[in-house]
Design a protein that fits this description.
By secondary structure, the chain is an all-alpha fold. The model has no long low-confidence stretch (mean pLDDT about 75). The relative contact order is 0.04.
Protein backbone atom coordinates (compact mmCIF):
# COMPACT_ATOMS: atom_id res chain seq x y z
CA UNK A 1 0.00 0.00 0.00
CA UNK A 2 2.77 2.45 0.82
CA UNK A 3 4.67 1.48 -2.34
CA UNK A 4 1.84 2.79 -4.49
CA UNK A 5 1.85 6.11 -2.63
CA UNK A 6 5.61 6.55 -3.18
CA UNK A 7 5.25 5.84 -6.89
CA UNK A 8 2.28 8.18 -7.09
CA UNK A 9 4.19 10.88 -5.18
CA UNK A 10 7.23 10.64 -7.46
CA UNK A 11 4.92 10.79 -10.49
CA UNK A 12 3.37 13.99 -9.18
CA UNK A 13 6.84 15.46 -8.55
CA UNK A 14 7.93 14.52 -12.07
CA UNK A 15 4.78 16.06 -13.55
CA UNK A 16 5.27 19.22 -11.47
CA UNK A 17 8.92 19.51 -12.63
CA UNK A 18 7.84 18.88 -16.21
CA UNK A 19 5.18 21.60 -15.90
CA UNK A 20 7.74 24.09 -14.51
CA UNK A 21 10.17 23.30 -17.34
CA UNK A 22 7.44 23.73 -19.94
CA UNK A 23 6.33 27.01 -18.34
CA UNK A 24 9.87 28.39 -18.45
CA UNK A 25 10.31 27.29 -22.04
CA UNK A 26 6.94 28.79 -22.98
CA UNK A 27 7.90 32.11 -21.34
CA UNK A 28 11.20 32.20 -23.25
CA UNK A 29 9.43 31.47 -26.55
CA UNK A 30 6.77 34.11 -25.80
CA UNK A 31 9.46 36.66 -24.94
CA UNK A 32 11.35 35.93 -28.15
CA UNK A 33 8.13 36.20 -30.16
CA UNK A 34 7.26 39.56 -28.56
CA UNK A 35 10.75 40.89 -29.31
CA UNK A 36 10.44 39.85 -32.97
CA UNK A 37 6.95 41.31 -33.11
CA UNK A 38 8.17 44.67 -31.74
CA UNK A 39 10.99 44.75 -34.30
CA UNK A 40 8.55 43.92 -37.09
CA UNK A 41 6.09 46.59 -35.95
CA UNK A 42 8.86 49.20 -35.79
CA UNK A 43 9.98 48.28 -39.31
CA UNK A 44 6.37 48.35 -40.52
CA UNK A 45 5.87 51.81 -39.03
CA UNK A 46 9.06 53.06 -40.68
CA UNK A 47 7.94 51.74 -44.06
CA UNK A 48 4.49 53.30 -43.63
CA UNK A 49 6.09 56.67 -42.88
CA UNK A 50 8.28 56.39 -45.98
CA UNK A 51 5.24 55.47 -48.04
CA UNK A 52 3.31 58.47 -46.71
CA UNK A 53 6.25 60.73 -47.50
CA UNK A 54 6.39 59.44 -51.06
CA UNK A 55 2.63 59.84 -51.44
CA UNK A 56 2.75 63.42 -50.16
CA UNK A 57 5.65 64.43 -52.37
CA UNK A 58 4.51 62.52 -55.44
CA UNK A 59 6.58 60.43 -57.79
CA UNK A 60 7.53 62.76 -60.62
CA UNK A 61 9.48 65.98 -60.30
CA UNK A 62 7.83 68.98 -61.89
CA UNK A 63 9.16 72.47 -62.36
CA UNK A 64 7.43 73.65 -59.21
CA UNK A 65 8.96 70.85 -57.15
CA UNK A 66 12.65 71.50 -57.74
CA UNK A 67 13.09 72.11 -54.00
CA UNK A 68 12.08 68.49 -53.43
CA UNK A 69 14.60 67.36 -56.03
CA UNK A 70 17.30 69.34 -54.32
CA UNK A 71 16.29 67.80 -51.02
CA UNK A 72 17.10 64.37 -52.45
CA UNK A 73 13.67 62.78 -52.59
CA UNK A 74 14.00 61.99 -56.29
CA UNK A 75 17.33 60.21 -56.36
CA UNK A 76 17.26 59.52 -60.09
CA UNK A 77 17.41 63.24 -60.85
CA UNK A 78 19.84 64.42 -58.17
CA UNK A 79 22.93 64.03 -60.32
CA UNK A 80 21.42 66.12 -63.12
CA UNK A 81 20.50 68.86 -60.66
CA UNK A 82 23.97 68.73 -59.08
CA UNK A 83 25.71 68.95 -62.46
CA UNK A 84 23.49 71.86 -63.49
CA UNK A 85 24.31 73.62 -60.22
CA UNK A 86 28.02 73.09 -60.75
CA UNK A 87 27.74 74.43 -64.28
CA UNK A 88 25.96 77.57 -63.04
CA UNK A 89 28.61 78.01 -60.35
CA UNK A 90 31.42 77.77 -62.92
CA UNK A 91 29.72 80.36 -65.13
CA UNK A 92 29.35 82.73 -62.17
CA UNK A 93 33.00 82.25 -61.26
CA UNK A 94 34.05 83.01 -64.84
CA UNK A 95 31.99 86.22 -64.76
CA UNK A 96 33.58 87.23 -61.47
CA UNK A 97 37.07 86.47 -62.79
CA UNK A 98 36.43 88.45 -65.97
CA UNK A 99 35.07 91.42 -64.05
CA UNK A 100 38.07 91.28 -61.64
CA UNK A 101 40.41 91.14 -64.62
CA UNK A 102 38.60 94.07 -66.26
CA UNK A 103 38.78 96.04 -63.00
CA UNK A 104 42.48 95.26 -62.71
CA UNK A 105 43.12 96.40 -66.31
CA UNK A 106 41.09 99.58 -65.79
CA UNK A 107 42.96 100.31 -62.58
CA UNK A 108 46.35 99.76 -64.27
CA UNK A 109 45.39 102.05 -67.14
CA UNK A 110 44.21 104.72 -64.69
CA UNK A 111 47.44 104.54 -62.76
CA UNK A 112 49.60 104.82 -65.87
CA UNK A 113 47.52 107.66 -67.28
CA UNK A 114 47.28 109.63 -64.07
CA UNK A 115 50.88 109.21 -62.95
CA UNK A 116 53.08 112.14 -63.93
CA UNK A 117 55.99 111.39 -66.19
CA UNK A 118 59.24 112.99 -65.25
Amino acid sequence: MYGNNIGFSSSIKDLDKNQDDLSKEMEQIRSKFRRCEREWLAEKETLYRKLQLCQQLGGAATAGRMADVNAGFFTDQRSAVRLAGESRLQKKLQKVNVSDLQFSIDQDMYLTVSSPTV
